[in-house]
Please model this.
Amino acid sequence: MSKKEAYIEKLEAQLKEWIAKIEELEAKADRASADARIQYSKEIDNLKMKREQVESKLRELKQASEDAWEELKEGADTVWNEFKSTFDNVVSKFK
Model:
């Protein structure tokens, strides 16, 4: 397995975990009070927007040649770290 394939596989696995956790957060939001539900919905919508950015970068990485993917990796890492930070922040608000 190439470095590119291993990197993409790692990102895909982590993304699947986060998608499942977002679904859990949505379920918690549904059980919250009306005011909390509004705030949680905003947070979840922000997470989904960031997730879409990660998925877009992941598609770019998959389509890149073995030589070019390293250049895209830095941008993917940036988007990934932003998503992780947002995700961790939202999860802490749900506790």
